[in-house]
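[recover] target loaded
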């Protein structure tokens, strides 16, 4: 690429005369709004001329009075047409149970338009529905059949004319109506029967076992098969699904083709994985799978992402994984090959904020997947809550209007209509690369789970459901009347499938899983660490001087035609001095060296978060903005071999972190990082951290190398901008699941990022990143610390050389407080206190710490010092581990004491003076400079030695 300014929006094609340059100008804006037909407002003079000409051509009276009347009628007819296009869905026949009583809106009646009793009157409509002139009654019937049948279409909120016309044409042209061949109809019936009988079989064989069945929504099965079939015919070669537990087992079996005997094995209590793999496992309706299915000779790969019971939490994970797969398939420009499909519940779709977060990302650079197909299984109930108490809008799908996504409401008792909706959705997505929603109205035949009693709360609904025939009965009766099947066809299909299930049920008794697929495909060559302790040693992360110098030039060279900010100029001058002198490397430069070296070695690097391009603290400057044109230049993006991406994300934590987790799931060859603006913002993504990042490997056998960058440190910035809640991450640490670091050295940060990619396994990495240390004079590294035999240090010794035999008091700590301790210690000229930093807190570096403490033969006291309150931070996590290390070092019976803030409900004070006083006190206590603190610490130390 050279050093020419790079376009910051490479994947958004130019659309019209969109603004080019200003930061608020998105090529997708503004969208053109025009009705595109005669139902738009017309100049009256033009209307008269058009109608007069049409009347003469049709042999109708063309005198002024007749034309005037015809114009009035035509305008009213056009208004009628437009209102049906806008509001016809409100009168559609959608509820299979008939309990949703909705009167036809008055403006959809002939009387409202002045046509009461005038059904035989001919009106001019100028080609709409293929009519030039049409009788009012005929037009009304066509409108009702088109917009008020089993499919209701919401699309007139879409501003783009071409999109609206496409959907309009699909609905209004006779050849585009819902039509299937006899063979197609039989295939739909067979799929519905499979869905029904599978649920009934599970209910009979595993009485009382939760399965969260699809009963009542079985039309989804042929509809999802249509997604595969029609998707394959339009170029899709991979589909990534996400869904909650309702109907998941049915989708696994009848859409994803997971063998029935494997699912029966899991229902009987068997493991989903070989015994030697380990892991805690998960309930069967949370598990995922992957498979290939073939229709019409076209093979489509499919995967269902595993997820927890947190409804909709999997959505951003699916989108992130899709984005990664599109990158690997070279599909980021066309978005034709990889499709995300999200299956939702109605109450969750309306109630869960992450749904909107995902819609919000749908058209944003770096997060777009070229459109997601959303399928809502609208049971018209959420656990025990009726819709009127569960949302404030008419439909659960209304949130999708925020991104102008079209919405197809469809009656779940009409499998053909549901299948047609999916076919249309695929065609729309493939053409326009935008999200689309299918809202299938159905019902839940049983309670929230099969042991639940729904009549406690919805007696009338469940009286109706009890009397309501199953979908296959309704559809088979219809096909009988049409002559598509004979009287015995449906029963034969049913019995054949039951017999097949019985055979699979018997096979399950001898089934044993013999492999797990978590290190296949792009993950080939990676594996679980053989030994949690030794696997983290001896990883070569240093780079040679040639690459080091080359990166220095890349990071400091400004293109001739780029006008940078004057302050950035000073920053770059400082960087040039670092590379020239070989010293003083700060955090941001070390980070850029890590990123650049990985890219140069063929890895991808993806960093996203709120304001990550510049950096929250104006420290990173990964993107240089031309001060005249706002063109963007990304130095690291000019490097060969790998790919560097940095994105300022939407103002979302839950959705964006989930997206990055999903991206990392699919691509272990890319260093994927999510950065919080301040560390505590991770609170908004706690579900992703608890359910996916910390537990995904042990539950679902899905490794992940995601990195979380969480600014952390007490500088008096108040409760919300001090603590990244280190304690919460440490509470999640077990089974070698994640890594938690609180790093104080730029070089060590460089090495830990490179270590993440250089090892033969992947584990999520949580880094408490600094704020004040970004520019702290002592938090600097030398050039030699990036090359040679340098590597990541799990513990760092004191910056002051103190002979081990002279150490009487050892202060252990992590993070920024180390510099406060060392500065104060040196200021007071204390020469028997050493400070050791734990750069990695989990996996706990017990062995190197014990080796270090063993050399301190005259050690009398060990103190753990932290900035956080006692009930926060690392204290409760490290105290027993430090004691174990002391025992291993030969200091038997010695226990660490605590120095830090007192227990507190709030992470930090909001008063600057109080903060400074607290910080001074905890540092003094830790160093033994406070008489009270010193005597207490000495007394504790003497007590432990005496007891030993």
């Amino acid at each position: 690429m050279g050093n020419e300014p790079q376009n910051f929006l490479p994947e958004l094609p130019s659309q019209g005369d969109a603004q080019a340059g200003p930061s608020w100008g998105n090529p997708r804006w503004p969208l053109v709004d025009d009705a595109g037909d005669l139902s738009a407002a017309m100049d009256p003079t033009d209307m008269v001329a058009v109608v007069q000409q049409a009347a003469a051509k049709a042999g109708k009276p063309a005198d002024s009075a007749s034309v005037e009347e015809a114009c009035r009628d035509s305008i009213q007819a056009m208004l009628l047409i437009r209102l049906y296009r806008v509001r016809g869905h409100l009168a559609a026949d959608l509820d299979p149970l008939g309990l949703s009583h909705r009167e036809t809106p008055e403006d959809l009646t002939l009387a409202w338009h002045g046509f009461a009793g005038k059904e035989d009157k001919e009106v001019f409509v100028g080609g709409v529905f293929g009519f030039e002139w049409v009788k009012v009654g005929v037009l009304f019937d066509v409108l009702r059949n088109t917009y008020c049948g089993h499919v209701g279409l919401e699309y007139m909120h879409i501003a783009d004319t071409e999109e609206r016309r496409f959907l309009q044409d699909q609905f209004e042209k006779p050849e585009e109506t819902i039509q299937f061949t006899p063979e197609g109809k039989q295939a739909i019936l067979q799929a519905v029967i499979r869905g029904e009988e599978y649920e009934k079989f599970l209910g009979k064989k595993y009485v009382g076992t939760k399965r969260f069945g699809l009963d009542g929504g079985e039309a989804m099965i042929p509809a999802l098969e249509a997604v595969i079939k029609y998707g394959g015919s339009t170029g899709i070669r991979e589909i990534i699904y996400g869904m909650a537990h309702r109907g998941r087992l049915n989708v696994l079996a009848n859409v994803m083709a997971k063998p029935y005997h494997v699912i029966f094995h899991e229902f009987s209590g068997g493991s989903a994985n070989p015994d030697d793999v380990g892991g805690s496992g998960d309930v069967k309706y949370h598990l995922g799978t992957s498979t290939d299915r073939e229709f019409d000779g076209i093979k489509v790969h499919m995967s269902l992402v595993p997820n927890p019971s947190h409804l909709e939490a999997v959505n951003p994970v699916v989108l992130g994984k899709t984005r990664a797969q599109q990158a690997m398939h070279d599909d980021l420009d066309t978005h034709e090959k990889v499709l995300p499909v999200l299956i939702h519940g109605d109450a969750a779709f309306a109630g869960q904020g992450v749904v909107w977060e995902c819609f919000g990302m749908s058209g944003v650079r770096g997060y777009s997947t070229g459109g997601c197909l959303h399928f809502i299984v609208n049971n018209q109930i959420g656990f025990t809550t009726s819709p009127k108490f569960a949302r404030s809008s008419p439909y659960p799908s209304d949130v999708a209007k925020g991104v102008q996504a079209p919405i197809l409401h469809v009656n779940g008792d009409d499998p053909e209509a549901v299948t047609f909706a999916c076919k249309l959705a695929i065609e729309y997505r493939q053409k326009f690369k935008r999200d689309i929603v299918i809202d299938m109205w159905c019902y839940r035949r049983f309670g929230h789970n099969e042991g639940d009693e729904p009549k406690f709360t919805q007696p009338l609904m469940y009286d109706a459901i009890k009397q309501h025939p199953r979908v296959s009965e309704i559809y088979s009766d219809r096909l009988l009347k049409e002559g598509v099947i004979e009287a015995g066809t449906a029963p034969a299909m049913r019995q054949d499938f039951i017999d097949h299930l019985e055979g699979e049920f018997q096979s399950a008794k001898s089934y044993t899983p013999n492999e797990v697929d978590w290190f296949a495909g792009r993950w080939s060559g990676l594996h679980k660490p053989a030994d949690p302790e030794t696997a983290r040693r001896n990883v070569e992360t240093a780079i040679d001087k040639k690459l080091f110098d080359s990166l220095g030039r890349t990071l400091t060279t400004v293109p001739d035609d780029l006008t940078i900010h004057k302050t950035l100029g000073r920053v770059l001058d400082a960087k040039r001095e670092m590379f020239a002198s070989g010293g003083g490397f700060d955090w941001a430069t070390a980070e850029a060296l890590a990123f650049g070296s990985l890219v140069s070695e063929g890895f991808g690097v993806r960093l996203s978060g709120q304001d990550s391009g510049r950096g929250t603290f104006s420290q990173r400057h990964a993107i240089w903005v031309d001060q005249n044109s706002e063109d963007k230049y990304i130095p690291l993006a000019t490097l060969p071999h790998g790919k560097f991406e940095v994105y300022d994300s939407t103002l979302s934590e839950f959705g964006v972190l989930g997206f990055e987790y999903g991206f990392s799931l699919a691509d272990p060859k890319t260093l994927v990082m999510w950065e919080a603006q301040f560390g505590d913002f991770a609170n908004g993504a706690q579900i992703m951290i608890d359910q996916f990042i910390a537990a995904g490997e042990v539950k679902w056998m899905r490794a992940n190398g995601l990195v979380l960058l969480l600014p952390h440190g007490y500088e008096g910035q108040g409760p919300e901008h001090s603590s990244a809640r280190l304690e919460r991450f440490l509470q999640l640490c077990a089974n070698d699941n994640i890594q938690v670091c609180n790093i104080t050295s730029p070089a060590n940060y460089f090495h830990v990022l490179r270590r993440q990619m250089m090892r033969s396994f992947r584990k999520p990495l949580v880094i408490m990143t600094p704020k004040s240390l970004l520019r702290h004079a002592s938090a600097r590294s030398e050039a030699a610390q990036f090359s040679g035999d340098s590597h990541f240090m799990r513990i760092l010794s004191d910056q002051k050389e103190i002979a081990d035999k002279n150490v009487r008091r050892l202060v252990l700590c992590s993070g920024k407080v180390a510099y406060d301790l060392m500065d104060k210690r040196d200021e007071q000229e204390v020469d028997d206190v050493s400070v050791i930093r734990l750069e990695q807190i989990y996996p706990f570096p017990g062995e190197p710490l014990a080796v270090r403490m063993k050399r301190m033969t005259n050690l009398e006291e060990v103190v753990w010092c932290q900035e956080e309150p006692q009930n926060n931070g690392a204290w409760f996590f490290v105290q027993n581990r430090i004691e174990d290390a002391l025992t291993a070092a030969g200091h038997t019976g010695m226990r660490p004491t605590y120095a830090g803030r007192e227990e507190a409900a709030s992470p930090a004070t909001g008063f600057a003076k109080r903060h400074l006083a607290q910080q001074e006190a905890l540092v003094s206590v830790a160093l033994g400079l406070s008489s009270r603190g010193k005597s207490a610490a000495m007394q504790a130390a003497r007590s432990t030695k005496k007891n030993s």
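[recover] notes: Residues 502 and 597 are 58 Å apart (CA to CA).
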